[in-house]
Amino acid sequence: MTSSLAPWASRPGLSRGRRYPQPPAPTRSEFQRDRDRIVHSSAFRRLVYKTQVFVNHEGDMFRTRLTHSLEVAQLARAIARALNLEEDLAEAIALAHDLGHTPFGHAGQDALNACMAAHGGFEHNLQSLRVVDVLEQRYPDYDGLNLCFETREGILKHCSPSNARRIEQAEPGGVARRFLDGTQPSLEAQLTNLADEIAYNAHDLDDGVRSGLLTLEQVAAEPLAARFHAQALAEHPKLQGRRLLYETIRRMLSEQVYDVIRHTRAALAEAAPASADAARAAPAPLVRFGSDMRAQSSALKRFLFANLYRHPQVEATMQAARQIVRELFAAYCADPAQMPASFAARAERERAVADFIAGMTDRFAISEHERLTGRRLMPR
């Protein structure tokens, strides 16, 4: 596989290595090894009961953080293969990118960030890195999963300047350096960022229609979906309902992937980076949509925010979710003994509480809140 990689692709044999050196595995590359460690982690398994848009009790067929991560991984591998980039690295980043997400999706994250405002805040991307660096405890000689630099770099998709400076102080020239010097992550990390966007726009449309909060007519009116809806009807005039929605989304997904591949090839041909590090030094990401697709994808994101994520029914559930997180945080800070001993004994109380809550599934958070307050705010 390595022999077919583009000159600017990441290469497992040239990895910047692990925080704790280890001998190579006999049958797997370094990035395959990272992927396997992520899949076997406790945090990865918990994603199956963490909200994407709809809380778990609202329906068995809605996406969760786990199914979202799998869809991102599939898209990331497809794009990486077409561009002769490192598929295993892209897959590892995709599978790990949401490991630090709280229960209840962005509502849980926002509530926990507010609770932690006086204690360094809370960023789910930074928490994902924290999960793989510190919180997973599976090995006898170190905390975390001891992943390669390139995988960790890709996991840290966003980072505030203050957190970047703090990480840089502990790890000079490490995974946070690019947020301070304006360079880019690997091409594999860049394509995974776009695969994430492509995946959630598409599957949130699907879940929104399935829930009844969006209509097929609303979807068909959105510029990004409209032409694919029209194409599907032109070829299959009798198509309707869910089959029409699926065909519209399938075509939309494919065109977005092809657009990324087409415009990234052009950008790479123009920049001609000699290596993976040369691609990092580019002034802007080289994996990209064309301008028209970027505008349409951004418009679809705005549509979803206005009509799905901020829908009164979703917002009512998320209000309850925020209350659960706030009250859990207050309860554990007041009485750390209510947490497992490994969290209760830590000196940084508020960060320990944030770590514990961030690792919860939706239903465990609901159950713990009921245990501590005597009130049930959501079904389990």
UniProtKB/TrEMBL annotation:
SUPFAM superfamilies: HD-domain/PDEase-like. CDD domains: HDc. Keywords: Hydrolase. InterPro entries: dGTPase, dGTPase-like, dNTPase_2, HD/PDEase_dom, HD_domain, PHydrolase_assoc_dom. Residues 1-34 are annotated as: Disordered. Residues 65-201 form the HD domain. GO terms for biological process: dGTP catabolic process. GO terms for molecular function: dGTPase activity. Belongs to the dGTPase family. Type 2 subfamily. This is Deoxyguanosinetriphosphate triphosphohydrolase-like protein. It comes from Ottowia cancrivicina.
